[in-house]
Amino acid sequence: MSTDLAGKRVVVTGGARGLGLREARRIVDGGGAVVLADVDEQTGRAAADELGAGFVRIDVTDDASWQDGMAAAVAHLGGLDGLVNNAGIEISDLLVDLDPDNMRRVLEVNVLGTALGVKHAFRAMRPGGAAGAGGAIVNIASVAATIAFPGIAAYSASKSAVERLTKVAAAESGRLGYGVRVNTVCPGLVPNAMGAQLAGDMERLGLFPTADDAVTAVVGLTPSGRLATEDDIADGVAFLLSERSVFVNGATLSIDGAMGM
What we know:
- This protein is α/β, with parallel strands linked by helices.
- It has helices at about 20-30, 40-50, 65-75, 100-125, 155-175, 195-205, 210-220, 230-240, and strands at about 10-15, 35-40, 55, 80-85, 135-140, 180-185, 250-255.
- The protein has a seven-stranded parallel sheet with strand order 3-2-1-4-5-6-7, sandwiched between helices.
- Helix 3 runs parallel beside helix 4, helix 4 (about 100-125) packs parallel to helix 5 and helix 6 crosses helix 7.
- The chain is globular, with a radius of gyration of 18 Å.
- The chain starts with 8 loop residues before the first strand and ends in a 6-residue tail after the last strand.
């Protein structure tokens, strides 16, 4: 078993399933302790029990929910060394048919949710905070922040914002002496539930004849010749949480097989 995260205490948002749960499992496998945070309390508690982790309910778009959830997570873990801002949604629309409510929802979850996570992680990990020993934040963006792919304007805009927000957060943390590193991971398309939904949306919007054709197009745009896996992403997140990346700050780690280069 890897011990690269031994002793690390980490909160993972969107941790009830999918990529968030895989990231949490990688942290546990690396010797760390995890609290899963999610709005889906039933699924999240079941996942936490199976993983041997804690669970807190956090609506990432709600400031009070963050405040209460982070306090509970710090109490459960006995401190805090890291946050993975993984929670996010994707809703596909052609710009000509853009639904403002859909875009607001994507921006609220992906951008505001990430910003509030940074806020409350800073407050917990900075000197004088509930944990107070510094740490690391990893914000999950997307290859969609680096390329122009049709049908995902709101998602692409939100993930571009996450990448820039990360750099501002790293600058503020350094200038104010918080001792918290902040980095971004930009995953490529992963063949999980969200990835399958996205491929199906491309067919629904008439951009590709079938969902399989959409996936084939993505692979064709990827020099490494395949889709990303959840393990690929989780390993990158683990690196950015670990002591092996102590001088990596404000960086964007693309795990996309060079699709976004």
